[in-house]
Specification:
Layout lengths: L2 H5 L3 H12 L3 E2 L1 H6 L6 H13 L3 E13 L2 H6 L2 H11 L3 E3 H7 L4 H12 L2 E6 L2 E6 L1 H5 L6 H11 L2 E2 L5 H9 L4 E13 L1 H8 L7 E2 L4 H5 L7 E2 L18 H15 L3 E2 L5 E3 H6 L30 H13 L14 H5 L1 E3 L4 H10 L5 E10 L11 E10 L5 H14 L5 E5 L5 E11 L2 E11 L1 H4 L8 E7 H9 L6 H4 L2 H6 L4
Parallel strand pairs: 8-9, 10-13
Antiparallel strand pairs: 1-7, 2-6, 2-7, 3-5, 4-5, 11-12, 13-14, 14-18, 15-16, 16-17, 17-18
Helix pairs in contact: 6-8
The structure holds phenylalanine (PHE).
Phenylalanine binds next to strand 17 and strand 18.
Length: 506
Amino acid sequence: MDREILEGLSYNEKRLLLAMDKIGGVSTPEELIANGSFALEVEVMGSASWLSTKGLMQMDEEQSVFYVLGDEKVAKDGLAERRAITIINDAGGRMDMSALAEAMPNGEDKIAVGWLKRKGLADIVKEGDSKILALTDLGKEMLSKRMPDEEVIDKLAQGPVAKGTVDEKIIKDLKGRQSMVVEDVKVKRTLKLTDMGREAIASGIELKEEVAQITDNLIQSGKWKEVDFRKYDVQTFAPAFYPAKKHPLSRLGAEVRKIYTDMGFTEFDGEYVEPAFWDLDVLFVPQDHPARELQDTFYLSNPKKFDLSSYEDLVQMVKKIHENGGDTGSTGWGGKWSREMAEQAMLRTHTTVNTITYISKHPEAPAKVFSLSRIFRKESIDATHLPEFTQIEGIVIDENANFDMLISLIKEFYSKMGFDQIRIRPAYFPYTEPSLEFEVFFNGKWMELGGAGIFRPEVVAPFGVKVPVLAWGFGFERLAMLKWNIKDIRDLYISDIDDLKKNPTF
Ligand code: PHE
């Protein structure tokens, strides 16, 4: 016998075991209440179900069907055909059908006539244009007798009747007659001590009031020294409870937003569909850059292209910057810049497109903005790649901004996210100079998380920005994978409701 089970028994569980033992180990809740062992059925059942999860008791349920009167009116008024034979008899044993309809309103005469015929209580005879109801010998006999179905009704009027003790055919008819009779299912519970239960009793159960809950009063009065505390039984079964929670990515997004807004940034967003002009050309991505290729970028067929003429001055400036550097002091990429390529409609490949459209509308310093939004790249799906993912992007436009500030902003963000080991290395992006890439140390591995840099004059000059613009873009899903140690990026989007509920880490 497991000591923990014995020590974990509540006062009422012990009471129930002892009461059951006294009456031979088998009982019902009703009996235990009748003999004064317990006052309430819930007390018995509560303790009994705990004892049965602990294996000390067995609970059996037996369901039995009873019939009860469904409509009390029937018991009072009687069957329609009973009233009809009385009315016909009072009229001399014969009656015009239309006179019966007057005597039994609300269509009850129709029900009555149907049953009069079915039971053979009256015949219908035609006399000229009218139909006459005439009581049969059986109908006359029944004036002073109860019919079989009436006997059943009388019985049910005394109380519920167990299925199997009355004529099922009559019951079926009465159930069909506007539910005069309905079923009532009663559950009979039997409690039985198991061998383990007997063993527990044999090992000696001491019935002492025990304290299950500590109160201030108990502590302050010093009474706690005298009372017995009930031990916890941590092995007892208890139903799992899963409170509502937000999707892990929504929570992580909220966390990212909180960190940036706490640092004084405001959020911005842009469009999913843009011309290549904004996603690439304005950002000084050369037109022969591999990122432009069909296999990397989703170009659209509808709309296929954008008309750029509403900002023709900017288009001309960007053209010059690409071809010879324009007034920026750069030599540009050389060659001929193609307007058609820039007009192509595409799904944005980075949120840096939002950044630059934002700067075009708000070129003034100082500014600190961030975005957390969806981007699209033509990647094949595997454990670390998705064709749609989310970028955390931000910029600082400030006279005093510099490379050190950029590094400390990145470090600060990740440290607030809980990652303190960050490694920075030089990198290349066509739109920033200097540029950096950074990695976070996690689980014994360095993992690449994003890029950053200071926008080149070729990018910001068209908007009249003269001060440094720090810019960065991080992978949001990568962050989630790090945070929850997820090996497969797809797991983040499968949203298996059961896993989401039960997974304690997210
Ligand atoms: N746009 C880059 C990317 O998608 C990230 C980046 C943003 C780099 C801003 C530099 C500056 O990977």
